[in-house]
Amino acid sequence: MNKKNHKRFVTCVLANFLVHHRGIDRSKAFKMAHAFYKAMEKLAKGLVEFYYLKDDGSIRHAHGTLCDGVSEKFDEWKRKQAEKPKDKAKEPKDSVKHVVKYWDVDKEAFRSFKAENLLVSNTDETHD
Description:
single chain, alpha+beta, 3 helices, 23% strand, globular
């Protein structure tokens, strides 16, 4: 699957999840899914500043990445993961498919949030 089709596929899957499981209207769901995809692309390439809604209702300001070379601790963790023997790839449960796991460079630890709770990133505008 080429990059353009992959982007469309991921965006549609998330948007449909938001519509059918979270009750968000279709237009807003596609805008949220597109902003989410752009933020995930940026996380894979470098440091991203973003905000998301935590489960307790508070707003978290985060600086995160999924890119090598931004944090020594993240790079060390990634090396250790590469050295581990590979188990059979397991499909994530439906409840965690739309949860984002990222490396928080301020806390030097992994954090996660639900995809629909992304509020603003330095790659997009608010979608509330």
